[in-house]
Amino acid sequence: MKTIQMALSLLYSIYSKNLYHKNIIFMFTSRSQCEKYSQRSDSRSVQCYFGSPTARYERENDTPLIVKNYNKEIFNADAKYMYEIMGKKAKCINNMTEWLGHTILEKHGLNLTEGTLRSQLGDMTTFGRIVSDSDGKINAQSVLLEGTIETNSGYTVTLNLNKVPKCSLFPGQVAVVQGNNPNCTTFIADKILTDTVLPLPEECPVLND
């Protein structure tokens, strides 16, 4: 059923954009809705091809092809495309979380408690990134607070929300949390702050007519 819908959508886009070509051939078979996808008979088969599938092509001439660099910057032989180092990614997330965390603290006139969640017990004001401990949607029992290098040396703690009357959280959200740290592994939150006003640019944008 999905194959038929995809083919019809492709046909519609071809006709609507005047891209139809007589040599474009579609190959698909109809199947009942109750047929299991894993038991389909046309797995990995070509559904659309251009021209004759048995045609043979030969070169008309030996014109040399020269490829030039589009940009002046030339990549080295060991350059990696769509490749990122986890350490750099973690550092970027850490810097972003600390910047937003301090901005939220500044807006509400709060001070960050000295020490990390792993070394300090009792009432604290800290911040971190909301993450989920479950594979499904985040819920009140799966909320974790991922600390930064400054607040918890990058470790996570379970965030107990039983004393919070109302909150709206999502994974990746930066939040300032006030509450009690009884055992370095669970933080009992009394209040969660996530709103802030980011600083305006130093120079006003120039609008051209």
UniProtKB/TrEMBL annotation:
Keyword annotations of the record: Nucleus
Primary location class: nucleus
Taxonomy, superkingdom: Eukaryota
Residue ranges annotated for the DNA polymerase alpha subunit B OB domain, each copy included: 95-193
Compartment(s) where it occurs, according to its Swiss-Prot or TrEMBL record: Nucleus
Name of the protein this chain belongs to: DNA polymerase alpha subunit B OB domain-containing protein
